[in-house]
Write a structure and sequence with these properties.
677 residues; alpha+beta; Helix Hairpins; D-amino Acid Aminotransferase, Chain A, domain 1; OB fold (Dihydrolipoamide Acetyltransferase, E2P); 6 domains; 5-stranded mixed beta sheet; 35% helix
């Protein structure tokens, strides 16, 4: 092999990496696009002529080959923690005061960064080479998206510099710049293709493409902001120095980041950032403030999977005016008929809004809303658009009042409004109403229910439209051959979906009860019913009086559960699910079988030693019932820092209140092997 060829390939790779860094990270290109293309074309030709010299880290190898079948799960070496959020100056000042108290009044410098509205990822480098990229997921487990992230030219495949650690995990946010988002959608519209909903959804969808070539065609970039697992001794002593070190290694860090010695300076920075929000070139929904020194971060620690040394300050929702062009009615899984506003598209809170929630006809009457009105739209929490008001004096003579439909828009059955309810409902059940059936299947397969991976909205729409699934049990009779005939679902995806459906047969009684979609029964109530009755048969045979003995189940919930369990069609559907093999460990321990039997507990505020979920599980294992609200039936309340109205109500009712130390002592006394687990 000619050494000159090897040297030329190495030189071309180094030059291209340098120019990628200048263009995509520093935003300071040094050569013209045509000159860059000549370098890239020369490298491509040399590698084609000498395939034995192709390296995975070569700039030509960013775009992968064949599509993947699915995304593998990745367990994070260090959790990707979520952040506590606040929306007011008072809350921010309270957080800062708590930090000062915990640090005995020591001076605190604050590192401030814009909060990018994108997708959180972690990048793992070993010996300076990118080995893994993963989504945040639930903070503990994410998805392997390495092939897709490799296509981003702002992500270095090889780290440069003199101080490259042997192991380095970098946390960052992948996003789609606003100008590139608009350009992408303009090209898609011109080509008659589907457009992206907003920059954040566009980034998330792009990263979850099984074909990395699709990701490569999307205008994605990232800012890096933190370090996870890394070689001992490498991490600098402050957050500000972490960002500087990442920049030296070739990562893109936000130039808006700053560090201040006082909270007043931070608040002035927040105001200035908000004023420039629309000119930043990317969507933000606030800012993140962090205690700058890592030794102070360590002293403050974390609580309930949130660092106590950081706070996300969320900007207030944005508002805009637009015209209401129509009101349509949608049908939910319980038959609720809900009005939805169709709006002339308007840019609010970083996204283009064309729909808004109206809740019910009473809300329409309260607003005095007519089709054709000019309305004030607020993107509440920067997420859910709402119509706040009709603009006074702007009603056109042609405006039309909104009338409630008399028949279900899905199946044509009469719509009824039960006495005392604000929601109108379709009088038919899911067997006769496609919309209820569709929404019921979405609920049945959701994460908190049977958790059927891959059964998305598009597939459910087709299953209902073709009348292949009339009851949830019909899902378990589907074959891969039949599913493969659905639009955009190939043989491999069909086989994966059949496997996921089959795996969902193994569940738990609380999940099964929740999956049934009984009106008024959420996750907590399903758990309480399972614990109280211990078996499905006992629940099905319970009368309203027995149901009302379950903690936090009142007459309304008891009536709904009894009506559901007494309905012959519902019972037949349940029997069908059992017949196709849906099952769970039996029996579930009933209340009354542990040392805390008969007691009703409520957890409020933050816990430091245990997570809330862990404490809830431990108490239930000892026979207690754990509910979300304080009532006269509540036996004891555990209150941690930040406890609010629940603690006040408990004190007013004279209910014993324990702190976390007392809870741990009680758990230690009853079950020393599991305390703190």
């Amino acid at each position: 092999m000619d050494a000159a060829i090897t040297q030329r390939i190495d030189a071309l790779r180094a030059a291209i990496r340098h120019h990628d860094h200048c263009y995509y990270v520093l935003d300071a290109p040094e050569i013209a696009d045509a000159d860059y293309d000549r370098l890239f074309d020369e490298l491509t030709a040399l590698e084609a002529a000498h395939p034995e010299l192709v390296s995975p880290e070569s700039p030509t190898q960013r775009v992968g080959g064949a599509p993947q079948a699915s995304f593998a799960e990745v367990r994070h070496s260090q959790p990707m923690l979520s952040l506590e959020k606040c929306t007011t100056r008072t809350e921010l000042e309270d957080w800062f005061a708590r930090c000062r108290r915990e640090l005995d009044g020591a001076p605190i410098a604050l590192a401030c960064e814009p909060k990018i509205d994108g997708v959180a990822v972690t990048l793992r480098y070993e010996d300076g080479r990118l080995r893994l990229a993963a989504t945040r997921g639930d903070g503990t487990t994410g998805e392997d998206i390495t092939a897709n992230v490799r296509t981003l030219r702002s992500v270095p495949l090889v780290l440069e510099g003199a101080d490259v650690p042997a192991l380095l995990e970098v946390r960052g946010e992948i996003y789609m710049p606003l100008a590139e988002f608009e350009s992408f959608n303009a090209r898609a519209r011109a080509a008659g293709q589907k457009t992206l909903v907003n920059p954040r959804n566009g980034a998330a969808g792009s990263l979850r493409q099984l074909d990395s070539r699709i990701t490569a065609a999307r205008p994605l970039t990232l800012f890096c902001y933190a370090v996870g697992e890394c070689s001992p001794g490498w991490v600098p002593e402050t957050q500000t120095e972490v960002l500087q070190a990442l920049g030296k290694l070739g990562f893109r860090v936000n130039p808006e980041a700053a560090c201040f010695e006082s909270l007043d300076d931070c608040e002035r920075w927040l105001e200035a950032l908000l004023a420039r929000r629309q000119s930043l070139g990317y969507a933000i929904d606030g800012a993140v403030l962090k205690v700058d020194r890592r030794d102070q971060q360590a002293r403050l620690g974390a609580v309930t999977r949130k660092p106590r040394w950081a706070m996300a300050f969320k900007y207030a929702a944005e508002e805009a005016t637009t015209r209401l062009i129509a009101v349509e009615f949608q049908v939910g899984r319980t038959g609720a008929v809900t009005p939805v506003a169709r709006l002339e598209p308007v840019f609010v809170g970083g996204v283009t809004v064309s729909n808004a929630t109206l809740h019910n006809m009473d809300e329409i009457a309260r607003l005095d809303l007519c089709v054709g009105d000019t309305v004030l739209v607020r993107r509440a929490g920067d997420v859910i658009p709402q119509i706040m008001a009709v603009m006074p004096g702007a009603r056109a003579p042609s405006a039309e009042p909104v009338s409630a439909p008399a028949a279900c828009p899905s199946c044509g059955s009469p719509i009824v409004r039960p006495e005392g309810e604000v929601v109108a409902r379709c009088s038919a059940g899911p067997a006769r109403c496609p919309a209820q059936r569709r929404e019921g299947l979405r609920h049945f397969s959701s994460r908190l229910a049977l958790d059927i991976d891959g059964l998305g909205d598009r597939i459910i729409e087709q299953l209902v439209a073709r009348d292949w699934v009339r009851e949830p049990a019909d899902l378990y009779r589907l074959t891969a051959e039949r599913l493969a005939t659905l639009d955009r679902l190939g043989d491999r995806s069909a086989a994966n979906l059949v496997a996921a459906i089959a795996a969902s047969r193994e569940t738990t009684l609380p999940r099964f009860i929740y999956a049934l979609g009984i009106r008024e029964v959420g996750e907590a109530t399903a758990q309480a019913l399972a614990l109280h009755f211990g078996s499905l048969d006992a629940l099905l045979s319970a009368d309203p009086a027995a149901l009302e003995t379950v903690p936090d189940v009142g007459p309304v919930v008891a009536a709904e559960v009894h009506a559901y369990c007494s309905d012959s069609e519902r019972r037949a559907a349940i029997a069908d699910l059992l017949a196709v093999g849906v099952r769970w460990p039996d029996p579930v321990r009933r209340e009354g079988e542990g040392p805390l039997s008969g007691e009703i507990w409520v957890l409020t505020g933050a816990l430091e030693t245990l997570t809330r979920d862990a404490a809830r599980d431990r108490l239930r294992q000892l026979g207690a019932t754990v509910t979300d609200s304080v009532s006269k039936k509540t036996t004891r309340v555990v209150a941690g820092p930040g406890a609010g109205s629940k603690l006040a109500k408990a004190e007013a009712l004279g209910i014993p209140v324990l702190d976390e130390a007392a809870l741990l002592e009680l758990l230690e006394r009853f079950d020393p092997d599991h305390v703190g687990a």
